[in-house]
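Example record used in the benchmark description.
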Amino acid sequence: MNIQPLQDYVVVKPDTEATETESGIIIPEGSDKEAVNTGKVLAVGNTVSGEILDKKVLFRPYGFDEVTCGDEKVLIGKAENIMAVLC
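Model output (structure tokens):
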């Protein structure tokens, strides 16, 4: 991936959405599903602490824009939309 965010922006690869529940029920596309709000930080801007780089984070699902970089879909948004680092 060749993308470097500027200033206080971060690039996050969202976790994949489950299309099947634990009990085996398949969820059809287009159904009312909640947005995925966890992912891995791939890159940070020059004013963002590098401590969150390569960490799994919890973020506001509607605070990021989806961008296609090569064949990969990533999210770009302000670091302030990241709410927590997950352990």
